[in-house]
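Renewal narrative, Specific Aim 1. Our central claim is that a sequence can be written position by position from structural information alone. The example that follows is taken directly from our test logs and has not been curated for this report. It begins with the structure tokens describing the chain, in the order in which they were read.
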């Protein structure tokens, strides 16, 4: 399935129709060098999603990113350029390059106007984890959203899974998983390259891996298979939202005492619409009579620079020392701060700290990991920007190219790399150069 991200005040993921024109041939027998050097055939920008996924499956993440970069100069049309930027946001995030993903995001919109916002003295911050678990205790359904190029949101959900399990939650619905592509995910306990779309991103993969380790069942809900050709506003969007809601409702009818988590994209979790586009959460509430706890992770997150931050996020960091994901609320009324949302739309909104790169990569990539390892790189001939990939050893040995790394990020010019990882696995470390790969020693 191919998606296009439309950036409005509230970002959202729309289904985008496919096209068979101007596609670069990508058969398994086509040599990679020939494929990327064919500059006469320029695909439509949205086609790059499928092409990049195919290259990852054949040659790896770095090769896919190198392939995409070769086409960057060909997209000058504003719509095509915007789509290309969204492609690059996605695959830079897959490769663990947070800064690059945010830089491409910044190209989608101009810097914010110099608006100023100030929080009153009555507002306080509370660590989000404890706040969310407290609010979820009496809920049957809890919905999170994410920005698909921000693995930080998945790392945050992963950090909550153990506490949700203790509350009786046992099912995790995810938008990016397709059971018809990978029917063995729950038996196997970890994702592969063909499990879904964003599931090949390492943090997403480990969110699923952690869920399975705790005892969750992973379920798919976004599997509308009916073609929609309507050109009327919102008709196709509403069809997708309705099917998604009905899939979750059907599960609850069969399992009336079940408590479920839903990890969705962008605006799907809004419970009250202002126009004719009726989101999944609103349709779910209407059909089931269950009021889900909707938690926004998208609106209060960092951008590439202060110039692109919204006024609420900037004001929060100016007033508060936000070192962990937090909730802002009124100390007297207990009403939570929701920036551009209304209480009937969203229940909670998480404010994220700005990223630190204390070990050479984004701190939240290894959020919750406790054991420090050293990777010896002095004998590896690599170029800065090559990808350091850490696989769980038995997954890599069993599935080879189909395996999804647990951690991945671009290397700088160093001889040793410190990483934090779970202490209960054995690992295989690879440096991905694009056309070749090297092994490295972890100790």
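The sequence written for that structure reads:
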């Amino acid at each position: 399935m191919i998606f296009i991200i439309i950036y409005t005040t509230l970002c959202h993921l729309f289904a985008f129709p496919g096209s068979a024109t101007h596609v670069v041939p990508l058969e398994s027998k086509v040599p990679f060098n020939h494929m990327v050097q064919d500059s006469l055939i320029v695909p439509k920008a949205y086609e790059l999603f499928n092409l990049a996924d195919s290259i990852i499956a054949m040659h790896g993440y770095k090769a896919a990113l190198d392939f995409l970069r070769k086409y960057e100069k060909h997209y000058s049309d504003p719509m095509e350029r915007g789509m290309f930027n969204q492609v690059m946001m996605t695959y830079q995030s897959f490769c663990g390059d947070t800064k690059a993903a945010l830089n491409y995001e910044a190209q989608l919109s101009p810097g914010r106007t110099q608006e100023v916002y100030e929080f009153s003295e009555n507002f306080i911050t509370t660590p989000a984890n404890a706040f969310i678990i407290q609010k979820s205790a009496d809920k049957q359904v809890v919905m999170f959203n994410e920005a698909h190029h921000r693995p930080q949101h998945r790392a945050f959900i992963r950090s909550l899974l153990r506490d949700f399990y203790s509350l009786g939650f046992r099912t995790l619905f995810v938008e990016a998983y397709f059971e018809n592509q990978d029917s063995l995910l729950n038996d196997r306990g970890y994702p592969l390259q063909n499990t879904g779309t964003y599931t090949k991103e390492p943090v997403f993969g480990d969110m699923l891996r952690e869920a399975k380790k705790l005892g969750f069942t992973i379920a798919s809900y976004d599997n509308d298979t009916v073609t929609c050709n309507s050109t009327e506003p919102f008709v196709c969007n509403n069809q997708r939202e309705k099917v998604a809601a009905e899939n979750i409702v059907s599960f609850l009818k069969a399992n009336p005492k079940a408590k479920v988590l839903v990890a969705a994209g962008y605006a799907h979790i809004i419970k009250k619409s202002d126009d004719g586009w009726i989101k999944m959460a609103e349709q779910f509430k209407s059909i089931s009579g269950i009021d889900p706890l909707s938690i926004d992770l998208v609106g209060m997150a960092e951008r590439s620079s202060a110039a692109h931050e919204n006024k609420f996020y900037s004001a929060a960091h100016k007033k508060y020392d936000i070192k962990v994901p937090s909730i802002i609320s009124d100390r007297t009324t207990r009403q939570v701060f929701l920036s551009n949302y209304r209480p009937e739309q969203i229940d909670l909104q998480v404010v994220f700290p700005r990223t630190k790169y204390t070990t050479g990569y984004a701190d939240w990539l290894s959020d919750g990991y406790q054991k420090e390892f050293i990777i010896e790189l002095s004998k590896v001939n690599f170029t800065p920007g090559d990808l350091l990939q850490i696989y769980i050893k038995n997954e890599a040995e069993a599935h080879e190219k189909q395996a999804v790394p647990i951690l991945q990020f671009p290397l700088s010019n160093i001889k040793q790399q410190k990483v934090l990882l779970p202490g209960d696995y054995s690992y295989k470390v690879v440096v991905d150069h694009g056309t070749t790969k090297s092994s490295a020693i972890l100790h």
